[in-house]
Design brief:
- The structure is a single chain.
- By secondary structure, this protein is mostly beta strands.
- The chain has a single domain, classed as Beta Barrel (Acetoacetate decarboxylase-like).
- Helix content is 10%, strand content 48%.
- It has helices at 40-43, 114-124, 173-179, 216-219, and strands at 24-38, 51-53, 60-74, 86-97, 102-111, 128-138, 141-150, 157-167, 183-188, 191-198, 205-214, 231-242.
- Strands 1-3-4-5-6-7-8-11-12 form a 9-stranded mixed beta barrel.
- Residues 1-20 are annotated as: Disordered.
- It comes from Streptomyces abyssalis.
């Protein structure tokens, strides 16, 4: 008998307590969080089975998140300095499953290292894309660029610049909703899975989007953003742990 969906769990700035050993470790550095409001009806068909759009006051969101991945490592082994360190830009959506767990769903993950992209595509069914990328800082301005190589659509691009500002002393409800995410939903061999993560509370800064020329959002199957973003944030980064994936109990899968 199908389970009745639960109310979404509260949004918390700190992760749930976890005693599980790490599956993956890494650091996310120099992050730009750029978000537009989206219609849940546009987002729902793009989510894994057993999940629905996570909404705040009737809206869900599309995120364009650019950063530097640093020293990806397996289990408790030291992170890899070259293959595990590279620029990355994600298009992500916001989801909740029948157990009430809030997460993100990645529609694309452009990264600058071919071997990690190939492994993620083949072994984990993650929508990684190999791209030519850079992250450059000029004072308070950071410019992130990418141009997709493989798989397609070849040439899908992003160039955006954010100017960082003052630290955020008390994030708004929306800022917590968009950044305090303690897991991801994905489909693995036709089964819905939830991969938890934990890290220290985000150190956030106000930011201004001064340049944005991209088509990654439409390449990910979403309508082009209408108007300016509703939220632009910067973070110097956090160390991150991913723990063992879990199949959402009670979630029907094909």
């Amino acid at each position: 008998m199908p389970q009745t969906p639960r109310e979404p769990l509260p949004v918390t700035p700190d992760p749930p307590v976890s005693t599980s050993p790490p599956l993956l470790t890494q650091s996310w550095l120099d992050l730009a969080f750029v978000h537009w409001a989206a219609d849940p009806a546009d987002v729902a068909p793009l989510l894994p089975p057993g999940t629905v759009p996570d909404v705040l006051h009737g809206s869900t969101y599309v995120g364009l998140v650019a950063f530097r991945m640093h020293r990806v490592g397996w289990f408790r082994l030291p992170g890899i300095p070259y293959l595990g360190s590279f620029p990355e830009t994600n298009v992500r959506l916001y989801s909740v499953d029948r157990l009430g767990r809030r997460g993100v769903v990645f529609r694309s993950l452009d990264a600058a290292r071919l071997i990690p992209v190939t492994v993620a595509l083949a072994a984990f069914r993650m929508p990684y894309r190999w791209s030519r990328m850079s992250v450059r800082r000029d004072g308070a301005a950071i410019t992130y660029t990418s141009s997709r190589r493989w798989p397609g659509p070849r040439g899908a691009r992003c160039r955006m610049t954010v100017r960082t500002g003052e630290p955020v002393q008390e994030p708004t409800e929306l800022e917590h909703f968009l950044t305090a995410r303690w897991g991801m939903h994905n489909t693995f061999f036709n089964r819905a899975v939830y991969l938890p993560n934990d890290h220290p509370r985000w150190p956030l800064h106000r930011a201004e989007l001064t340049e944005c020329d991209e088509d990654l959002v439409t390449a990910a199957g979403l309508p082009a953003p209408a108007g300016g973003p509703v939220s632009v944030l910067y973070s110097p980064g956090v160390p991150v742990r991913f723990t063992r994936p879990a199949r959402p109990a009670g979630v029907p899968t094909p």
